[in-house]
Amino acid sequence: MAVSFAPGRVNLVGEHIDYHDLPVLPMALERGIELDFTPRSDGQVVLRNAEPDFGERRFPVESGLTPGPPGDWGNYAMAAAVTVAERYGGSVGLDGLLSSNLPPAAGLSSSSALVVAMARALLHVAGIEPDPLELAEALAEGERFVGTAGGGMDQAASLLGRAGHAVRIRFHPFAVEPVPFPENWTVVVAHSGVSAEKSGGAREAYNARRRESTAALAELARRMGEPGSAPRELLERHGPGRLLERCRDLEGPGGPWASHALTEAARVGDAVSALRERDLVTFGDLLNRSHASLRDVYRVSHPRLDRLVEAARDAGAAGARLTGAGFGGCMLAVCVSVDAGSVVERLREAQLAMDPPPDLEPFTVHPGSGARVAG
Ligand code: GLA
């Protein structure tokens, strides 16, 4: 028997920009998905879940799999199997039992953690020690099997998280840079009570944002006389100021969509500096501005998330914002550790004032290590 563990993540800042290959700043959690497994020699996966209601899933490890209904957890395990079969070959299978101490559909990446735990287990059975950066890229692409056109943040954070650190993730070239997270700061997470299932209800809204903002940024590049340039290249050459001016000329929602990406990317760079300087006031302010942009410009918040964000700030948090794709799910707040108790308490009061109140009470999270296999 061996154990594959993959953590979930919270994204501190850099929301809805990984799919534009702009940098993001998440941290892996100590909570995650655990897969207890034993190898099978017939190339089949037989998966059970510690929650008996989830039933059993059975499929071969091969490239031609077809996903089940949208939102089905088995699709994420299949996404890992397809990726391993296509990228690494080898006829491997396993009997596995999954358990989780991450709330599902909360924007904490339980689904990517499942993909990562499953892929690491299959590769372990095959005797392959993958390069983590390569695997993160392969799984980001592989997870699109479930029908959501996600970016590369979640798999990279789960694979390459570092205890006590946030990680700045850059794309093209793919790189992960650990940034120490001050020991006397605490991150509090609270659920809105609105499920934000990545491959379920929120899928269409997420995919539409991605499609439309990609088109807007491509149009911006054309108007700058640099068709085909990536947003990162535009930012390097012109800085956000000039680009933001040109965003005003874009028709429809394209202008706001593109300007969110540009300002959010700048906030990630500033947040890394604030973290390194242990400057909580600046860091918190960047989080608050990120939330305002996600709420008012990119429009992916939810009134319940906005209420929780306000409550956390009233309780003394330096900054608070939705985390993950939005449309529901969780928010996070960052505060000095001595204030964490009162932030948790105020968030619970705000939850209890909702009808119906979220089941999950607010909790604190700490930066944890990346995925690992033992046994
Ligand atoms: C989801 C996706 C990520 C990212 C976030 C929004 O979690 O899986 O790739 O796009 O939404 O930042």
Describe the structure.
The chain is an alpha+beta fold. 41% of the residues lie in helices and 22% in strands. The chain has helices spanning 74-88, 110-126, 132-142, 153-160, 203-223, 231-247, 254-276, 280-297, 303-314, 340-352, and strands spanning 2-13, 25-40, 44-49, 56-60, 93-100, 165-170, 175-180, 185-191, 319-322, 330-336, 363-365, 372-374. The strands form three sheets. Strands 4-3-5-2-1-12 form a six-stranded mixed beta sheet. Strands 9-10-8-11 form a four-stranded antiparallel beta sheet. Strand 3 (44-49) and strand 4 form a beta hairpin. The chain is globular and about 60 Å long. The chain binds alpha-D-galactopyranose.
Rg, rounded, reads: 20 Å
What is the number of helical segments per DSSP (H or I, 4+ residues)? 10
Helix content: 40-55%
Spans of 5+ residues with little confidence (pLDDT < 50)?
A: none
Order of helices and strands: EEEEHEHHHEEEHHHHHEEHEE
Taking the alpha carbons of the first and last residues, their distance comes to 7 Å
For the biggest sheet, the summary is: 6 strands, mixed
- Broad shape: globular
Structural class: alpha+beta
- Which small compounds were modeled alongside the protein? alpha-D-galactopyranose
- Number of distinct beta strands: 12
Strand order of the largest sheet: 4-3-5-2-1-12
What amount of the residues lies in strands?
Answer: 15-25%
What is the average per-residue confidence, as pLDDT, rounded to a whole number? Answer: 94
In short:
The protein has helices at residues 74-88, 110-126, 132-142, 153-160, 203-223, 231-247, 254-276, 280-297, 303-314, 340-352; strands at 2-13, 25-40, 44-49, 56-60, 93-100, 165-170, 175-180, 185-191, 319-322, 330-336, 363-365, 372-374. With 375 residues, the protein is of the alpha+beta class.
